[in-house]
TrEMBL record:
<dbReference type="InterPro" id="IPR016167">
    <property type="entry name" value="FAD-bd_PCMH_sub1"/>
</dbReference>
<feature type="domain" description="FAD-binding PCMH-type">
    <location>
        <begin position="39"/>
        <end position="207"/>
    </location>
</feature>
<dbReference type="InterPro" id="IPR036318">
    <property type="entry name" value="FAD-bd_PCMH-like_sf"/>
</dbReference>
<dbReference type="InterPro" id="IPR050416">
    <property type="entry name" value="FAD-linked_Oxidoreductase"/>
</dbReference>
<comment type="similarity">
    <text>Belongs to the oxygen-dependent FAD-linked oxidoreductase family.</text>
</comment>
<protein>
    <submittedName>
        <fullName>FAD-binding oxidoreductase</fullName>
    </submittedName>
</protein>
<dbReference type="InterPro" id="IPR016166">
    <property type="entry name" value="FAD-bd_PCMH"/>
</dbReference>
<keyword id="KW-0285">Flavoprotein</keyword>
<dbReference type="InterPro" id="IPR016169">
    <property type="entry name" value="FAD-bd_PCMH_sub2"/>
</dbReference>
<keyword id="KW-0274">FAD</keyword>
<keyword id="KW-0560">Oxidoreductase</keyword>
<dbReference type="InterPro" id="IPR006094">
    <property type="entry name" value="Oxid_FAD_bind_N"/>
</dbReference>
<dbReference type="Pfam" id="PF01565">
    <property type="entry name" value="FAD_binding_4"/>
</dbReference>
Length: 445
């Protein structure tokens, strides 16, 4: 563990109004932990910013003392590449201001998806939430952001209208397409390596009616369910999102589910999914008219930190061979294998680092590495499944795992542009994203 010299620790405490922890403080190990408890995070201090002014003060101090800052509002996406850095928590930057006339939301960098959804739903609006209500909106947008409503509206980052940032020189300013277009481009999916975001302005969307939920069957019906899923996905309008879930929980029989959301009325949704009526009766069917505030309940992902090992891939097809590969064997020791139907607006032109998401499906594999032996078996299973599927070789930034880097997600031209911006804007590497665009250079790429 890196220990800051006492004078710098005192400077930290005198320059920011928020709380500061160093390794000798009680509670330091808890506050430095990332969301994924399988990732060890070595940092020299933790600063919990009280406001944006604290971020400015911290960056100026770090710049003058040749220190680096890693920003994690909630700890999601951590890679462990933070050795010696000061860990910045921005969870207290949690203001939400919604203008129902312009349908623009102005939020702090620490706002979680579920909180924004509740505020937006009060006006019959929605942001572009993913599966988890506890991921921060800013963190997701910096990685592009895949949403339940991405087929209707594209990347979450495509809905961003402005960022409030602090750059490596300690100056705060507002970034828009006309004011600093290069940085605006980079922040909409290129990771958090170029500036510390303190606020975001984003376009909300109308959501007067939402229908969604989960249909669940025993895995003995897996092939039937998967084929019905695929048939519905091929014909689905953009307003309908369908995810296939293979589930294997310890001590329980394997399961298969179809998770869905529809931006529209119940009758139309049920008609679009009527083919599931031909399947054996499900163990449960939670589909119902729901508030956009409750989308996080569909997959019921954990809302507390825990260990995990993941791998994601983008699929070029979901043909019979792909279904064979997914269903040939039990998924254990994996806990879940999720297939997301993409397409729609996600495949349309996007002036963002990732660009259009042309692959029609994504697969996300997750397991809990309770021991080193189980962790290795999880990785081997993920590799075996991925190698048997028609994958494109790239993946969304928000789905990267700690062993990967931005070159696994973004086109080569975007990587080169991001590297140039990093060397111009932050030559001393004061700001440290979970995935730095320079990591692969240092590793010898």
């Amino acid at each position: 563990m890196t220990i800051l010299p006492s004078p710098i620790t005192e400077e930290l405490r005198s320059n920011v109004r928020g709380r500061v922890w160093v390794p000798t403080d009680s509670g330091f190990d808890d506050i430095r932990r990332p969301w994924n408890l399988a990732v060890d995070q070595d940092v020299s201090a933790v600063v919990e910013a009280a406001d944006a002014a604290d971020v400015v003060a911290l960056v100026r101090l770090a710049s003058s003392r040749k220190l680096s800052i890693a920003t994690q509002p909630s700890g999601h996406g951590a890679t462990g590449r933070t050795a010696g850095s000061i860990l910045l928590r921005t969870g207290h930057l949690n203001s939400i201001d919604i203008d129902p006339t312009t349908t623009i939301a102005r939020i702090g960098a620490g706002v979680r998806s579920g909180d924004l959804q509740r505020a937006a739903a009060a006006h019959g609006l929605t942001a572009l939430p993913g599966s988890s209500p506890v991921v921060t909106v800013t963190g997701a947008a910096l990685g592009g952001g895949l949403s339940w409503f991405g087929r209707s509206f594209g990347w979450m980052a495509d809905s961003v209208r402005a960022f409030g940032v602090v750059e490596a020189d300690g100056n705060a300013h507002r970034v828009t397409p006309s004011a600093d277009p290069d940085l605006f481009w980079a922040l909409r999916g290129g990771g958090g390596d170029l500036a510390i975001v303190t606020a975001v302005e984003l376009q909300l969307r109308p959501a007067p009616r939402v229908f969604g939920g989960r249909q669940l069957w025993p895995a003995t019906h897996a092939r039937q369910v998967a084929e019905i899923y695929r048939a519905m996905a091929v014909k689905a309008p953009d307003a309908l999102s369908l995810w296939l879930e293979l589930l294997s929980f310890p001590g329980a029989e394997p399961l298969i589910a179809i998770d869905s959301t529809f931006l529209g009325d119940e009758a139309t949704a049920r008609s679009l999914m009527s083919e599931t009526d031909d399947l054996p009766a499900p163990l449960s069917d939670t589909r119902a008219v729901m508030s956009a505030a409750n989308l996080g309940s569909i997959t019921a992902e954990p809302t507390d930190p825990g260990p995990g090992r993941s791998r994601a891939e983008l699929l070029t097809a979901l043909d019979d061979n792909a279904l064979d590969a997914l269903l040939a064997e039990p998924i254990a020791p994996l806990m879940s294998v999720q297939v997301r139907h993409l397409g729609g607006a996600l495949a349309q032109p996007s002036d963002s680092p990732h660009g259009p998401l042309v692959e029609p499906y994504a697969v996300y594999m997750f397991g809990v590495p309770a021991t080193a032996e189980i962790s290795e078996s999880i990785a081997n299973k993920q590799a075996a499944v991925a190698n048997s599927l028609p994958i494109s070789g790239r993946k969304p930034v928000t789905f990267l795992n700690p062993s990967e880097d931005l070159t696994d997600a973004l086109p080569a031209a975007s990587i080169e542009r991001l590297r140039l911006l990093k060397t111009q804007r932050d030559p001393e590497r004061v700001i440290r994203g979970n995935f730095s665009v320079l990591d692969s250079v240092i590793a010898g790429d």
